[in-house]
Design goal:
Elements lengths: L10 H4 L6 E5 L6 H11 L5 E3 L5 H6 L2 E5 L3 H5 L6 E4 L5 H6 L6 E3 L4 H19 L2 H9 L16 E4 L3 H12 L4 E5 L8 E5 H9 L4 E4 L13 H6 L4 E5 L8 H9 L3 E6 L19 E3 L9 H18 L13
Parallel strand pairs: 1-2, 1-3, 3-4, 4-5, 6-7, 6-9, 7-8, 9-10, 10-11, 11-12
Helix pairs in contact: 2-12, 6-8
The protein binds NADP nicotinamide-adenine-dinucleotide phosphate.
């Protein structure tokens, strides 16, 4: 066969000899079988297997892997890995564990995930906007008292991060009538969103924000970003929602701002240590709502379809999906 015919069209002939496509997860991960089933259903022509089913020859042949908090030793056992597809959107742990490797890392970008996060942002913004923490407390005290109503149009929501999730959240908040501000590393131009970037832009946004929603990736630049100094830039009575990663917020600084009632309430889905240890102050603080990292769970079926599309383009056309930028670390 002439060389010119071998790239795309020879695929059908090569397919029987394709290496298996392993799903690598943390040892003891309870959802491995469910992931393998969802991925296999989305890719009937591939052989999806857990790492334990790979023979030494398979390990050497593997060029692509699908991962969910993989064991670094299992990744290292596949020396010819070209790229891997995470089924999570946040890949800070993978990047840290793979610092010395050249393997191309692809994270999950799934409109279904963005819609789930946008729904969570709207739900918890409304929870704060309609004073639900206060009414819960009043009920405990059997106190009958209505709070002053403020229209959505009078409550500014500041989004930290205007990526796949931030942009979807901005749209659902706008539809609900909230004015939306957003901050990103590079300057964005989103219809109807007051966009900011840079240090001065962050200060300008914080000064106007009533509810701050964190949807940033965890990187060296965002670790500890929400500290005492930046919390103090928020107007008195503002609230915080952290749906991104725990270490972006300095937990002790947050506690101080809540104790001083400078911040009214914090809805926290993510923590420096997860699961949140039983003796953590957040569990019992009256101005904190604790969520168990549940704001936007990956949908296995839709994620499997996204992964399948990326694998197909690679197998058939040799195309690598857009990956994480190792310099920016997201
Ligand atoms: P993304 O598409 O990469 O967007 C990240 C956004 O953050 C971009 O707008 C980016 O700016 C901005 N950014 C990054 N570094 C910055 C910096 N130093 N200063 C200012 N802005 C910065 O990510 P995504 O898909 O929206 O996901 C965001 C994060 O959500 C994930 O990394 C993950 O940690 C978290 N997450 C949490 C859950 C949960 O259940 N709690 C679920 C899924 C994801 P540019 O636009 O200029 O690049």
């Amino acid at each position: 066969m002439p060389n010119s015919a071998v790239s795309t069209n020879a695929f059908a002939d090569l397919r029987p000899s394709l290496p298996p496509l392993p799903f690598l997860a943390a040892p003891g991960y309870a959802a491995t079988d469910a992931w393998v089933a969802a991925l296999q259903a989305a890719m009937p022509d591939e052989r999806i297997v857990p790492f334990s089913a790979l023979s030494p020859a398979d390990q050497a042949a593997v060029t692509v892997a699908i991962v969910a908090n993989p064991d670094p030793a299992e990744l290292a056992a596949c020396p010819n890995l070209v790229w891997l597809h995470s089924v999570w959107a946040g890949v800070e742990r993978l990047l840290a564990e793979m610092q010395d490797s050249q393997v191309h890392i692809v994270r999950l970008i799934d409109p279904r995930l963005a819609a789930t996060m946008a729904e969570a942002v709207l739900a918890w913004v409304l929870y704060l906007h309609r004073d639900m923490p206060r009414y819960l407390q009043q009920q405990k005290e059997q106190r009958w008292q209505s709070q002053v109503y403020r229209r959505a149009a009078q409550r500014k929501i500041g989004l930290l991060g205007l990526g796949a999730l931030g942009e979807a959240a901005a749209r659902s908040l706008q539809q609900a009538g909230f004015p939306v501000l957003g901050w990103s590393r590079t300057q964005k131009h989103l219809d109807g969103v007051d966009c900011y970037s840079g240090e001065a832009g962050l200060a300008a946004m914080l000064a106007q924000t009533d509810i701050l929603v964190c949807l940033l990736p965890l990187t060296a630049a965002t670790t500890g970003l929400i500290n005492a100094q930046r919390l103090a830039m928020l107007p008195a009575g503002a609230s915080l929602i952290n749906f991104a990663r725990g270490p972006i917020v300095v937990e002790q600084d947050l506690r101080t701002a809540l104790d001083a009632t400078h911040l009214q309430h914090a809805v926290l889905d993510v923590f420096a240590v997860e699961p949140l240890p039983p003796d953590s102050w957040q569990w019992t603080h009256p101005a904190v709502t604790v969520l168990p990292h549940c704001s936007a769970p990956t949908d296995k079926e839709s994620a499997a379809q996204i992964v399948a599309g990326n694998v197909k383009r690679y197998r058939e056309q040799g195309l690598l999906p857009a990956g994480v930028n190792r310099q920016q670390a997201y």
